[in-house]
Design goal:
The longest helix has 21 residues. About 4% of the residues have low confidence. The protein has ten helices and 15 strands. With 383 residues, it is an alpha/beta fold. Strands 3, 4, 5, 8, 9, 10, 11, 12 and 13 form a nine-stranded mixed beta sheet that branches. It has a six-stranded mixed beta sheet with strand order 6-2-1-7-15-14, sandwiched between helices. 28% of the residues lie in helices and 24% in strands.
């Protein structure tokens, strides 16, 4: 097939889009100012949780379940080993205060059945935890906060740094890859500069996967950075506060790790969710969702709040210290920009496809969105 595409961006959208193009035998050049594991790459620091979150696009559910089917292929039975798989399937719990709170739309369709979604009472949740042996905060914490019900489902967690490395290695080894340079150190000022780069490299297609960078590159005022903060604990050595008693589901080393999410007072809110995500060798505890907040460091009050969240989750914060923290910016816009650009590049003979703006759902929709972007490129090349 004729055509060579320049893909700009080495986050999960850029890497997966490049792979989808290669699967269609379209030649690819991949460029990025910094590698996938650079701290500024949102995909690297993210929790890797599959669950639609702050992505309001009508296509989200379709992309989400296409991605779910893809990442479930990586789930291994060796979830308890030191050499963890790229994707783990773990229990996920979202605590709710209102028994009548709305079940998410993504949990209603036939595609969601593989998640085993349940909307259950606290009593049923803690009983389920005893039977299946997964971690929960102490029952007294849930009762004191007046959490009456919960969402309970099985969800995949992507070990995001390792998956990014895996995808980059696949790109490098593909016969249709013409160039990979993810350490250019070069930041483009606008799309015209990217088009010029494409022309120099002999590319007739440009795929823009620059995430939040598109705010400046495309003068996209609808794009907002939604700041997230988390602290990381070592998953192997983390010490848990308490033990698993008949009357109380507390956390100890024999229990299966689980994802815990709270967005209701007193422990959480929409802008300051309280959550714990076991991912690879770490446990990520957060966090924040602050649109337009550009602070690059963890504020002292944020650190104090996340330490409190860790204690709520059952981590003994006197005996277990964080091994790191991370600040990142989710690339939120009202809808994902996945379309052909009808203006820039046309006169130079370079056709542009945009694929950015997943909000907090990057690891939830990346495959579905990348596949659609590659289909669009393929139709352009064939035309």
């Amino acid at each position: 097939m004729a055509g060579t595409a320049l893909v700009v961006g080495s986050g999960v959208f850029g890497l997966r889009t490049a792979l989808e193009l290669l699967k269609r035998k379209i030649n690819v050049c991949l460029l990025s100012p910094h590698p996938p594991l650079h701290p500024s790459t949102c995909s690297m620091g993210a929790g890797g949780l599959w669950m639609p979150f702050h992505c309001d696009d009508d296509r989200t559910d379709r992309w989400s379940f296409e991605t779910l089917d893809e990442i479930l292929k990586f789930v291994s039975e060796k979830n308890g080993s030191v050499d963890r798989p790229l994707v783990e399937l773990l229990p996920a719990v979202s605590f709710r205060r209102d028994a009548k709170s709305k079940v998410p739309e993504w949990a209603l369709g036939d595609s969601s059945k593989k998640l085993g979604f349940q909307y259950i009472s606290m009593e049923a949740l803690y009983e389920e935890s005893k039977i299946r042996g997964f971690r929960l905060p102490k029952r007294e914490i849930a009762d004191k906060a007046s959490y009456s019900h919960a969402w309970l489902f099985q969800t995949p967690i992507v070990d995001s740094p390792r998956m990014l490395t895996h995808m980059l290695d696949e790109i490098k080894s593909n016969q249709h890859t013409k160039l990979v340079n993810v350490e250019t150190g070069k930041y483009y000022s606008n799309l015209d500069e990217m088009v010029d780069e494409a022309k120099i490299l002999g590319c007739d297609i440009l795929v823009n996967c620059t995430g939040l960078g598109s705010q400046k590159l495309c003068n996209d005022n609808s794009m907002i950075g939604a700041r997230g903060v988390l602290m990381q604990y070592d998953r192997t050595s983390c010490i848990w506060d308490g033990h698993h008693e008949e009357s109380d589901c507390v956390t100890d080393a024999s229990l299966q790790d689980s994802v815990i999410m709270i967005e209701s007072p007193p422990y959480g809110s929409e802008t300051h969710p309280c959550y714990m995500i076991p991912r690879g060798d770490i446990i990520a505890v957060g966090g924040t969702y602050l649109e337009g907040d550009g602070e690059t460091n963890v504020r002292s009050e944020e650190r104090d709040k996340i330490l409190k969240n860790a204690r709520v989750m059952g981590i003994d914060t006197e005996k277990s210290r964080p091994i790191g923290n991370w600040v990142g910016y989710r690339p939120y816009r009202p809808s994902v920009r996945l379309e052909q650009d009808g203006n820039v590049g046309v006169s130079q003979g370079v056709k542009i496809v945009h694929n950015y703006g997943a909000g907090g759902s990057g690891w939830t929709i990346f495959y579905g969105a990348a596949k659609e972007a590659a289909d669009l490129v393929e139709s352009i090349v064939q035309y």
